[in-house]
Each structure stands twice: as C-alpha cells, then as structure tokens.
Known about the structure:
By secondary structure, the protein is an alpha+beta fold.
Amino acid sequence: MHVCKKQIHQGICLPEYESIIMLPAVVDLPSTVKVEVYPVEIYLCLSSNLESTVSARFSRADKIHAIHQKIRQHFNVSETAESRLWMRNTDTSSERLRNLNMTVLDTCLSSGMTVIMEIRNADGTWPTSRQHLFHELSFTVKCAFLPLQCLSNTPPLTEYFLKNSYLEELNFTNPLGMKGEIAEAYADVIKQMWSGRHYSVVPRVFKTKVGHFASQFLGYQQHDSQELLSFLLDGLHEDLNRVKKKEYIELRDADGRPDQEVAEEAWRNHLRRNDSVIVDTFHGLFKSTLVCPQCNKVSVTFDPFCYLSVPLPVSKERVMEVFYVSLDPTAKPTQYRLIVPKAGRVIDLCAALSQATGIPPSQMAVADVFNHHFYRIYQTDEFLSCILDRDDIFVYQLSSGCVDQDGEEVVMAIYMRERSHYRDYGSGSNSYGTSLFGHPLLISVPRAQCTREDLYQLLLKRMASTEEGQSACGSTDTNSQDATDGDQSAGAEPSGKEEEDEDEDEEEEEPASCAQANKRLPGRRRYTERRKKALFTMQAVNSNGTTERGMGETDGSFSFSSQPYIAIDWDADMKKKYYNENEAEKYIKDQSMDVPHQQTTVQLQECLELFTTVETLEEENPWYCPTCKKHQLATKKLDLWSLPEVLIIHLKRFSYTKYSREKLDTIVEFPLRDLDFSGFLLKKTVNSTEPPCRYDLIAVSNHYGGLRDGHYTSYARNKDNGQWYYFDDSKVTYAREEQIVVRLMHLSVVGFINMKSK
C-alpha cells in the first residue's frame, strides 16, 4: 500500500492508488484519547428467530442508532415498523437499549455480545415477555461493584440522595471532580434501588461513567473492591464538594504545641478545602508522629482519613505437606505435615523433615512433581515462597552417606514410560511412541558406576518391593538382546548362555541372586534370572521426558554436562506382567497428617494495634528532616484522634514482601454490635455533640480466591428493616448473623455505623 504522509493526515486516498488505507477510529474519553485498532464485533438478530444471527463490526464511537439501522437493512425490517433493541450478555441476561444516541462505548457493548431487535405486533403488544425471555440483571453487580450494596445500605449517605439534598451541592467546576457526573449516576442508581418499583436494576450507566473517569474499570474484568470503593468515595466527594474554590493553605508542624490545638487547626484547614457529605459521614483524623533517627527531631501532624487500611498479623511459620521417598525399596512414600519458617529456604524444609525421619538434610533432594515428571527440582538455597500450597512436593533420600573414594556422585532424575506397540511416524521419526506413568525418582549414583549395566541393576533394586504372601524377583541378567524389537536391553554383550524354558508355576530352586530377600517388582508374576529379556530399556530424555537425547557413552560409562534425565521404557506386555501400577502409587500418611490444621484467628483489635505500631520507613519512602537537611529513614507511628460517623475498615489480606506474595486466610473476629474503639483514641475528651466510640456492623465485603483471581460477595443490613441480606452476583438471599461469622476468613472490607446515628 502506498499513500503519502499528507494523504494519511488528511484521511484521503487518490484514485490512482490501488489500495485504500482505512484509518482507525479515535475514541475520545474524558481522561484520555485512544486509537481504536480492533472494533467491537457483535451479533445481530430478531427476537422472532434468535438462532439466525449475523456478525457486524462497529466502532466504540458509533451510536446505537447505527446498529439499529444495520439490523433493519440486513433483515429487511420496514422503516414504519415500531421496534426496540435489547442487549444480551454472554450469560443470557438482557437489557433494553433505550437511548439510540448513546455510543457503543457508553452502553458497554463488547465483542461477543448480541443485539436483538423486537418488533411490535399489529395489536400493539410486544411478542416477547421480559419475565421469561429477557431476564434483566439483578440490582447487584458482579465482582468489584458489590461495594454499591454496602454503600447503598449506609443510612446517612442513602438518605442524602433519596431526599435530593445532593442537587444543591453538585460541583460542576471542580477540576478534581467529574463535573457532577459520578454523583448524578450514583443518585440515579440509589433512587431506582430504593423506589420499590423495580424487581431489579441494571447500573450500566453508572458503570460506564466510572469506566470513563477510571479506565481500569472499563469492560467486564474483575477489579479490587477496595480500589473501587476508594475511587467512588473520592469521586462523590469532589463532585459534591461545597468548596467551589480551594485556597492554598500552608501546613504547620506541631512544634511542641498541644495535640488538641494542632488537631483542631488541622481539621479546620481540611474543611477549608474539603467539605461534603462524604467528609461529614466518612472522614476521621489520625495523628502522625515521625522521629529522626539521627537528631531525634520529632514531627507531629494530623491528617484526615476516609477509611482505615489495617494489616493482618502475619505468622512467621508455614504449614507444608510433602511426600518423603526413602531409599528403602520396601517402604512406600510417606506424607508428612511440617511446620517451617515462612521466610525460610528449601534447606529449612529438609531440616524439618530430618527431625521426623532421622535422615540428614544433606541426603535429601526436593522437587515439584506434576503429571508424572519433575516440574522443578529445587536447590537448597531457594526460598520456600516459590513453593505454592497446591504443589505436590516430593523429598527424596539420595544416598546412605557411603560413597566411593573420589566422593563424586551424580543426581539423576528417573522417569517411567510405557512404550506402545506402534511407531510414532507423525513426530518425524520412526521411534515407538511413549507415555509417562507413575512417580518419578531422584537417585544419587557414584560417577564411577554410571554405566548402563550398573544403572540397570540399581534401578531394578530400587523398584523392588516385598509383598506379604507373594515373592518373585526382577531379572539380573542383562547379557542378551531384547527378543521383541532387537533393542539393546542393558548394554552388556551376550554371555552365550542358552535360555531355558520353565513353567512359572513350577517350583524350582531360584538362583542365589534372585532369592536374596525374596524380593519382587510390584507385579503378579515371577521373573527369574534365566529369562534374558530385560524388563525395560533406558533412554536419556529432556526434563519433560518427551525428547530422547544421546547419553554420551564413553567406555561403557555415561557423561552428563547438566542435570541428567533418564527414562525407563517399559514394553506394554512386560509392564502388564511385572509392574503393579496401583501398588506403586500407594502411600502412607504420617501421624502428623492426623493433627488438624488450626486456622489462624485474630481479633480486629489486634489489627488496629498493629496499625498503630511504630515502624521504620522504607528506603523507597524516606522523610526529609528539616533539622538534618536530608532524607532520613525515620520511625513513624499512627494514632487515631477522632472517628467518623461511618467507619470503613479495609483488611490488607494480600501480603507482598521481598520474598513472597500471598493472600492471608486469617479469620478476623469482632462483635457485630457495640464494638468499642475508645481504647484506640488519643482524644479522650468527647463532648455531647460528638458521637460515642461504639459502633455496629452494617456491611461486609468478602473476597474468595487468590492473588490473580477470585470472587466477591457481600453482606449488608437493610437500613429500613434491619434484616441482613447476602449478595452474590445476581442472587440476593436472606442472611443470618451466624453466616457472617462463618465467612470472616474471607472478610475484605467492613463498615460500621456509630450507635448514636441509628
């Protein structure tokens, strides 16, 4: 395609050019301008035939009217026919598209959704019934928008909007606000929810407005409920700020003045720039004290807050479950439950297991087993934070400590594979297809014994086991060729001995090498030394056990430049005869597994105490000391000075450190009524006009899941009848107070109202 820059700028193409460049649309958002590379692809159909759909692409800047015309044209709908449009989501719930002048972006239409045209009947009725065909969404909103339910049941804020008090306080000129759009959209949702005329309400316009001013909330992806709540409270405050022109205020340090004087000054200064219903309802004041570690300069300031983000006490220990594989071939893998340091390393895990098994940590290797192969083999100095609770961790005993004179050993990863009867020509080779099975092994082999014959003998012994009432043994003769496909069985030359046929049930004296310990492979039939066909062959493979590699044999010994992975290939018939897969998969549980895992439980007061604990600033956030004239890692302490009418507490369940990232499942307990915060307030004198420090619970936001995904639900107490309700996406059910207590381990955000305000 050939077009000059000037033509691209003008958006035209001259006739002599064979190709035409279609310039992408530009979508104008309130906070940014984006070039639309991929338009929205939606499906169009008529309500009379929902199965007959046609796809069409539209820009996010297109009006709904363009979609309306497209449907009329494609399905030959008369211009005189009265129609209406419905937007259907992927979950089959639908919503009316009432305003044809709204854009695709404003209506939150996204690719994969369907727009349905419904045509009025000649008798004036509509052919479909919303009650059974177009199920509108419940007034709950999925995932992060559940804080709407919590705020909706906050009496002071909801009454403010229902009484239209906000109309006189809308601030359209605040540069920090959103021109009153967020406040108006929120008011519309609240009025619909509490009108009593709707079975359900779809807050789509409100969601669109939020997405316009905070692009992270665009679309239908999951978002953090606390992040939305913070944005919403701040947006409502700025849209309803009674201060039309904010004046510059120079903040002063305490400089030894009484706390009462400094606090009152800070609150007056705050109201000179911030005065709204959000400040009246949700803002409190805390005291911040910084101490310079060098000159002991003390800086005291009082700062407002809208909610408290309190940390959860983090346990320094962690419970891990592992499978221990002993060198003893007669011992089955044993599952242990261990307590290890949360910030510890793999060597600490080995040390904890050593106390239970008596095996030195130096003789252990730790690996993550997934789908019959090693997903990862850990080094002893790696941090335990890289091991997830859902991982299947195996710890292998490598050696008994007795090595040869040079002391050099090679740790080999052993995989079990079953070889099919047919060659895999589709992979570009004529080798036999294989599939992994069983648990892999980690073994330690002296380098001098890294020969094919020695490895065969070692693996044969390692896989042997004893079973009560049965006895047999694996072959120890490897001096023959595989009778099935001619592959070399174990690598040694034939000895010239002739194979003797014998019936397997015939009682005959076993060779000495076979009779030792009366051992057998986990199977049903005996395999004597005189059988010259090997049980399995060996191949060097990659870490996934799929690609075969050369074993680098020199003088009958193997040489490895990196971690060796060896596959034991079993012929299907041999595996069926001499390997009992069910028996090999069994394991036993140590008595430590019988001890129930105790869920960590803390009181909400403990979280507040941790919030007010002295801490040292991090290197990324130093404090500039006016006395030293440089940045210092000062100590900082936060204390509560005054509390708001409605107190919001956010629990920091997601813990991020230098070594780990995790979600804390700690249970946080607190009374649902009469929660006393007076012990945390520095301000001890409370006059009659100020509310007392006792609160009742009115709303809870829960998060289920982990760091990358999850699901939000909420509880809220109805402001009119005091009944608790449980909100889960589009489902709303009655709830009992006991249910809230049960789910405290998922608690993310809680809201309390002052008892005097009820």
